[in-house]
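Open question from group meeting: does this chain pack into something compact, or does most of it stay loose? Before anyone orders reagents, we agreed to write out a predicted structure and look at it together. Recording both the input and the output here so the notebook holds the full record.
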Amino acid sequence: MFGYVLPDCETLSVRDYSLYRAIYCGICLATKRRYGQLPRMTVNYDITTFALLATEAESANLEFGMCRCLGDFRRKPYVRSCDLIDRMADLNILLCAHKAEDDAVDSGRKSSFTRKLLRPHYEKARQRLPEADKIMGEMYSALREAEKAGESSLDRSSDHFAKMLERTMATVSLSCRDEYYSAAMRKLCYNIGKFVYLADALDDLEEDFAKKRYNPVIAFAPDYEKGGRKEYLERHMAELRFAVNSTINRAIASSNELVFTQANDLLRNIIYEGLRKKADELFSAEKKLPAPKVRLPKSTVKEFRKTLKAQKAIKRNKKE
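Structure tokens returned:
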């Protein structure tokens, strides 16, 4: 259910891309330090977005360093370990552990690789963020009850997951801000959570239908047929587009009430452009989307290097 809240790389600047990757790498390295190597596999792009929101909410003073890793031996910037980044690493473990638990319940399995992997680490994270863990447990329980009842309203079915992310973020990082700012940030987190839930449902249409699992979209419009994703979406495009686009519009409206000082352009890119781009991909896809990648286009990198080379040449000429 993670990997749907991303920036639009086509319009992303090199500076914002570097900040985004630095946050991601910072959480990954914090996860390694706090939980070991294997749990680093759970770090995802959605938790990076929430870390950016937490950075704004707390006006955090981030420090940067340079590192290499097994996935990329080139030196690259990362955010050094701090209380905020450590909390985001803990939060990610909790979210992934509860998601693995929910997947196991949905599939009728007693266990899974992810569930086994995270079990000992979940206990550590739960002790560090007990209130967040309690919220996740309550909201996932309510979500499963709605799924068992065959909830057919997209708004009601997505409400539990949206509230979980809203309440969790409020517990983890919003206590230090004034009431107005916190309320707007909570609305933003709620609608991002709602978008994630709906996006995941659209992405898993064929898989959920084949395995006879609950899917809120199929519960809303139950005339899905095997292999008929394209035709099904065409039949219900208006209603489904309205549900997703109205969620994105509310997220944008909430973000307009907030002042971002450290990652303004990056967060605006994610909320204004990234969410719509992901929605378009889901509605046009004929099968489940591949794992997402956040990379700058070659043309952007080429132009940046050209500019950097020109600036170095100017400095050399001035010295001469």
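Observations to bring back to the group:
Residues 83-107 form the longest helix (25 residues).
The two ends are 57 Å apart (CA to CA).
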